[in-house]
Write a structure and sequence with these properties.
single chain; 354 residues; alpha/beta; Alpha-Beta Plaits; 8-stranded parallel β-barrel; 11 helices; 34% helix
């Protein structure tokens, strides 16, 4: 249930209404400040609450509505139709994720391999317009014999790349035991597709302050994905970015996954959270990354995650889907054309023609 307050409602009135509702019905009341309205979200068993009775609490209450979705805090209704934004401080600037801001580009290798490689890649993707460097320190792999990442030592290398370039860092957390170390380095903590249903881990990242990038599970429905996000918000962390990275369908012959770009308009109607698209994992083929990235921009994505490696043929993981820095340079030029058309691009394109 949400209580929409009139514009200009005094702070003491908001506090009074919140306390009365909480004490009367034994529920939790959360304040959400939108662009035009202040909204009180009522969390708990609201079945016995009479909306008309709540409406009579104060003349400052404009409307009382029931949220019909199983996901409450994540739902668009919870913010009365308004989008939220995730603001991430980086060494260079405060970066805004959200539908009313320019598209944020995240780029880098699947795995951190050595200092020279990660620092040089960071410099190249920054020059092309990326705001964040992605790089795996801990890697979930299907085979126990595949490269699993260098762990905490790789976090140190990411920190070195951050210091050298000022880029924000996004890296994956797999085990709650590694949360302090990952949070110490990362500006955004990634929960990968394989851990989308790891509810214990979701609660842990929900109980800390760093923003969370939540990737869609390989076979997850949209409702399951949003309920996973609800775990994080319910644990206290409102700063969640949803990332579509492709799902498993019946045809895996020509692409690694099926990149579900239809989630963009669907999620836009269901949730207020920012949305990222990962065309690298979504296709698994470097030659498909550019057209899908541009399609995602046209469809309304808030951010893109693109794998870049200086020598994809020798990458320790996910080489076939990685772009070289030169190809990434060209892609950012191409993306800028579409991004400007939809008025979502502020990153300067590199000098040269598309």
């Amino acid at each position: 249930m949400i209580v929409v307050l009139k514009t200009g409602t005094p702070v003491d009135v908001i506090t009074q209404i919140s306390q009365e509702i909480s004490e009367t019905w034994g529920v939790t009341v959360e304040k959400s400040v939108g662009e035009h309205k202040v909204i009180l979200g009522i969390i708990g068993d609201t079945s016995a609450i009479d909306t008309l009775q709540v409406q009579e609490y104060s003349p400052w209450i404009q409307q009382v509505l029931r949220v019909q979705r199983p996901f409450k805090r994540v739902s668009r209704e919870f913010r009365n139709g308004e989008a939220s934004e995730v603001i991430v401080p980086t060494p260079n600037e405060r970066v805004y994720f959200g539908e009313h801001h320019p598209i944020v580009v995240v780029a880098g290798p699947c795995s951190v391999e050595n200092e020279a490689m990660i620092v040089e890649t960071a410099k190249r993707v920054k020059a092309a317009g990326a705001k964040f460097l992605r790089g795996g320190a801990y890697k979930p792999r299907t085979s126990p014999y595949a490269f699993q990442g260098y762990g905490e030592s790789a976090l140190d290398l990411l920190a070195a790349a951050r210091q050298a370039t000022g880029l924000g860092i996004i890296t994956e957390l797999m085990d709650a035991a590694d949360l302090p170390a990952v949070a110490n380095t990362a500006d955004i903590i990634q929960i990968g597709a394989r851990n989308m249903h790891n509810f214990s881990l979701l609660k842990k990242v929900g109980a800390q302050d760093k923003p969370v990038l939540l990737k869609r599970g390989m076979s997850a429905t949209i409702d399951e994905w949003l309920m996973a996000a609800e775990y994080i918000l319910a644990s206290g962390n409102p700063n969640v970015i949803l990332c579509e990275r492709g799902i498993r369908t019946f045809d895996g012959k020509y692409a690694r996954n099926t990149l579900d770009l239809s989630v963009l308009p669907v999620l836009r109607s269901l949730t207020h959270l920012p949305i990222m698209i990962d065309p690298s994992h979504g296709t698994g083929r470097s030659e498909y990354v550019a057209p899908m990235a541009m399609a995602a921009i046209a469809a309304g994505t808030d951010a893109l995650m693109i794998e870049v490696h200086p020598n994809p043929a020798k990458a320790l993981s996910d080489g076939p889907q990685s772009l070289t820095p030169d190809k990434f340079d060209r892609l950012t030029q191409e993306m800028s054309v579409i991004g400007k058309v939809v008025n979502r691009w502020s990153v300067p394109a590199l000098v040269g023609s598309v």
